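Notebook, p. 212. Picked up where the previous page left off. The plan for this session was modest: take the two constructs that came back from the sequencing core last week, fold each one, and keep the raw output in the notebook itself so nobody has to go hunting through shared drives later. Recording the first one now, exactly as returned: residue sequence, then the structure token string.
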Amino acid sequence: MTDVKLAVADGVATLTVMRADKLNAMRDETADQLLAALRQAEADPDVRAILMTGDGRAFGAGYDLSTIDPAQTPALDTVLQDHFNPLVRALRTSRLPVVAAVNGACAGASVGIALAADIVIAADNAFFYEPFVGIALVPDAGNTLFLTRIAGRVRASAAMMLGDRITAAQAEAWGLVWKVVPAATLMAEAQKTCAALAARSPAALAATKRLIARAADPDLDPMLDMERDLQGEAGRSPEMRAEIDRFFASRGGKA
């Protein structure tokens, strides 16, 4: 794996996105490698919990637009269907409890991936950001379900339509994160939480997770499908074409 590092110790599998130079923006391969690492951890009987985070100063900057061919219309519905939606579904249905340690910027699809975790802990300098509408797209990777279900319709609408940053303190007040801790102690706190989970009954945790998923997001599959379809339409719009052209123009035409 080149985008994702998997490390196992003391019953905890740590999955780290290793694209710090891109603020851990995710390409298709990143989602695939995260899913592969999750499956590898699930197959290890000694693993009792998952810790997800990003290398450097960001949890994840969403989808890496530089991977789009500027000469082609992006098939974002295919991207979601083949790469990101399988990861979100796997995180929610895994037998293992998943802890997300949000260590900085968390934007776009990365927000959905963080909120797909069972427990989210954020550094005090972290923030969440929904940039989709600002670039003529719609929220995806479970964002429309998770953010609306957790924070409520009014807050989710403002966050997703206006694209204002949600500070760590706001995220805690809205219920998006379990707790906010000083940045310097984030990983220690996340590891402590994972150790506590690893000491509990795996069967009881897996069953509890299934019950919570049934109560909290029984309509996850149809919502992911709807996000996929509407994102496909948005990706083919003239407005999105203009945004792609603007993005590459700002980079001097370079991918």
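Okay, moving on. Second construct, recorded in the same format:
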Amino acid sequence: MQRTSFRFFHRLRVRWAEVDMQKIVFNAHYLMYFDTAITDYWRALALPYEDSMASLGGELYVRKATVEFNASARADDLLDVGIKWVRTGTSSIVFQGGLFRGDTFLVSCELVYVFADPATQTSRPVPAALRAVFGAYEAGEPMREVTVGDWATLGEGAGALRRAVFIDEQRIPAELEWDVHDASALHAVARNRLGHVVATGRLVAGAPGVARIGRMAVHRTLRGEGHGEAVLHALESAAATRGDHQALLHAQRSAERFYARLGYHAEGEPFEEAGISHLAMRKELRA
């Protein structure tokens, strides 16, 4: 088995607690490694697992898990766990896994899941939309699409995600989340291949030549996967196209490094907004 067989990898470091008296990783932990990688594989597909299964009307249950050992991992090894979709049957989905230390192949795995009714655990056909996602990812196709438009067009999806992130997760009062700017703002949403909104943001008019970007939100389980960055770039592009030469935003302090990495520079002192510490950040835009 070669590393080149896989598009997707999950990286982990072996913990001391996972090593047995032989000073190698205890065999049962390898299944945990592959299962952890499968969780990250769903993120690579831009599919929040729980929400996606609910919308598809089913759940995945492990039918068979086979592990074959070639060599052992040891404490503090840095491992790459490769996962790929192999095939989809009527109700089954088969994944292959490969565990590598550098270019050295250690362990392989085959995981067979069955798509089933969560109430009765009886199998049902894998939805065509899910089949298509697997094939598209392994073919190297993008897992999201960013759309820019007005609130009338995008507000339902953008609003649902903002409610989940700002009101439910961050406990910002609803009366502070919704304002008059939504109706006139330009909004951007990133959708996955099931059509679900996974990231959003908006662009409002500020001082002459300055775009105000805000309400940036990413689905809780998909952060760090580039969806927020894609939305931000779409808003910046729209701002530059209409003639703005700067973008200004109020960044939550927890997201400061995210914006700094994308070219934003802090201005002034931190301040509190909706009970959360923020920092004004600005970026020069290129036409």
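Notes on construct two before I forget. The chain has two domains: 3-138, 144-284.
Flagging for discussion at group meeting.
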